């Protein structure tokens, strides 16, 4: 759902494939109009920051760019061939059983090189097959996080505003659906699941990993299928990362290259204010009201 103040219209995208416009002041036009349909259905959609482009992924694994007037600009397939553009080099030590284990092996090992190289295997829990889309703050690039069926792993594809494939992410085991591009533009945030812990992982625009930080266990909840992470959302000035669960939202900030949990609010459904970096709204699913709050950093 997106409301356009300049035209007093709202655009609603339905997963069945319909794009509907609702006009507050029709002025001779239809108040509610289906402006387009995609027969295969829609898996995700996101407007660009300047509200001039709508990017849609379909359930038939295609990517579509539409203008504000719903004209088709770009239409392309998401295929396994996209992975061939990656020039990421595996610098790990390979399989454990093929490594040489001489007396000096431990001393010779480079501590900056990971012992195990991820192959991108899917998470065993909390993997619902969803697709997510996130634009860079300046609208020059857009990222799509989706499962590549042929490779059986999640892939983050980065496209230019013109629809050209720019990069694909390196394999990351246990990567799930949530994705958020930091408005400052330097990193994308995703979520990686393990059996005993979960963590936020960062990617550069070229698809390479760029660090991570572990998430705290939820009080009274074991790591696993009960711990459902629904969304990641940066605030507009990139200082706070909100992590939404089924029953709560956590606010994380960074200082001296360390990530701190600053606040935990036991209500889901957070939306940041598009201009004021510390204002947000909470829309609980169980209540017919919206709470607008001001966040304070100390």
Describe how the helices and strands are arranged.
Layout: E1 2-4, E2 9-13, E3 18-23, E4 32-37, E5 42-47, E6 53-58, E7 62-67, E8 72-77, H1 105-108, E9 132-135, E10 141-148, E11 153-160, E12 165-168, E13 175-181, E14 188-193, E15 198-203, E16 209-214, E17 229-234, E18 241-245, E19 249-255, E20 258-265, E21 270-272, E22 279-282, E23 291-294
Antiparallel strand pairs: 1-2, 2-3, 3-4, 5-6, 6-7, 7-8, 9-10, 10-11, 11-12, 13-14, 14-15, 15-16, 17-18, 18-19, 19-20, 21-22, 22-23
Which key features would you list for this structure?
single chain, 298 residues, mainly beta, four-stranded antiparallel β-sheet, 1 helix, 23 strands, 1% helix
Can you describe this structure in just a few lines?
By secondary structure, the chain is an all-beta fold.
Would you write up a description of this structure?
The chain is mostly beta strands and 298 residues long. It is built from one helix and 23 strands. The chain has one helix at 105-108, and strands at residues 2-4, 9-13, 18-23, 32-37, 42-47, 53-58, 62-67, 72-77, 132-135, 141-148, 153-160, 165-168, 175-181, 188-193, 198-203, 209-214, 229-234, 241-245, 249-255, 258-265, 270-272, 279-282, 291-294. The strands form six sheets. Strands 1-2-3-4 form a four-stranded antiparallel beta sheet, with no helix packed on it. The relative contact order is 0.09.
